[in-house]
Amino acid sequence: MLKSWLLVIVLANALPMNSPAYGQIIPTNPQQPESFQERMRQQQQERTQQTQEQFKETWLRLNLQQPQLQQQQRIQQQEFTRQRQELIRQQQLRLQQQQLQLQQQEFTRQQQLRIQDQQLRQDQQIRQQQQFRLQQQRRKQELRQQQNNL
Predict the structure, then answer these.
(1) Residue 26's Cα: distance from chain center in Å?
(2) How far is it, in rounded angstroms, from Cα 6 to Cα 73?
(3) Distance between CA atoms of 74 and 80, rounded to whole angstroms?
(4) What is the pLDDT of residues 43-78, one digit of tens each?
(5) 21 Cβ neighbours under 8 A, 6+ residues apart
(6) What percent of the chain has pLDDT over 90?
(7) What is 91-143 written as a DSSP string?
């Protein structure tokens, strides 16, 4: 019991009368109450001070973050440039592949034309040989007939 009274006395001395722990703010000198204008001026001053502190915090935060943001922006720009270069490289590779395919198709076409030409020549030679043989056979036959007729 004595301990709790001592605690109350210590707390009463430790807490000032204007403390929110008492549940309200009591003017320090009740004989001189603050005027309404004085309270408004004080509230305005507090708001101004809060605004200045917020502005200062924002300014500090932005100025501290600005180099980080610039660095991040540089990194993003580099990544964008890298991706664009990669896209250009891939497009060039695709173009090269298409050109190669076209060259292969042209080569194949030329080969087919050569083969056809070669086959035509062979066919022509074969026909010529056949005609020559036929002519020879006819001559032989004609000669035989002439000999037989004599």
Answers:
(1) 63
(2) 63
(3) 10
(4) 999 999 998 898 888 877 777 777 777 888 899 999
(5) 15
(6) 49
(7) HHHHHHHHHHHHHHHHHHHHHHHHHHHHHHHHHHHHHHHHHHHHHHHHHHHHH
